Amino acid sequence: SSGGAIYAAIHPQQRITRVINSTFIANAAVPVANGTAGSGAISSNGDNVMLNCVFVRNTGGIGAITNGYGGTQINCSFYGNKANANADPTANKGGAIYNISGGKQINCIIYGNTSTGPVSGNEIYNYGTGSVQNSCIIGGLPATRDVNGNFGSNPQFYNPAADDLHIGPSSPAVNSGANYTSPDIATDIEGFPRIT
């Protein structure tokens, strides 16, 4: 299985896939005959983009997303995703995200995700290159914290146990992202202006 919800592979005749204002809850990628499982929510190959998306409690060999040779997540939140489905526990990498030779996370909250594989991959596992900017990330990839506008503080979700990832006015994630003027991200997932 490649993606529990979406498999987006770019071929020469295809356009880039854009996923906007979407929520992925409790999707699962189950192991195939050789014991390996794909991404719980999205398996992306190429320069696909996810904007204003929420990923909660997805499970697979990679918890939520695989970014293969590109892929960008902007203004996305990840919580409670688990990389735990491979027959070999050490092969589970990226509780939230697995970047393969590329992948960018910008203005994201990546918190409370787990992997049974390398501890460094609880939130994001980079195989090759990958970048995180202006994001809240706790656990894994310690080199990304406190650089490029990233920080490692509890984002103070309202009620994550009930899949409510709203943040309160005292959250350190408020006003911590970079401002972008693209019309696709002028509002949040609920249609409220991002910059007021």
Structure notes:
With 196 residues, this protein is mostly beta strands. The chain has no helices and 20 strands. A 5-stranded parallel beta sheet has the order 1-4-8-12-16, with no helix packed on it. It has a 5-stranded parallel beta sheet with strand order 2-5-9-13-17, with no helix packed on it. It has a 5-stranded parallel beta sheet with strand order 3-6-10-14-18, with no helix packed on it. The chain is globular. The mean pLDDT is 82.
- Quaternary form: single chain
Biggest sheet strand line-up? 1-4-8-12-16
| Spans of at least 5 consecutive residues with low confidence | none
Largest sheet: 5 strands, parallel
The count of β-strands is: 20
Q: What is the global morphology?
A: globular
Structural class category: mainly beta
Share of helical residues: under 10%
The helix count comes to 0
Mean pLDDT: 82
Q: How much beta, percentage-wise?
A: 25-35%
Terminus-to-terminus distance: 42 Å
- Which H/E pattern describes the elements? EEEEEEEEEEEEEEEEEEEE
Question: What is the CA-based Rg, rounded?
Answer: 15 Å
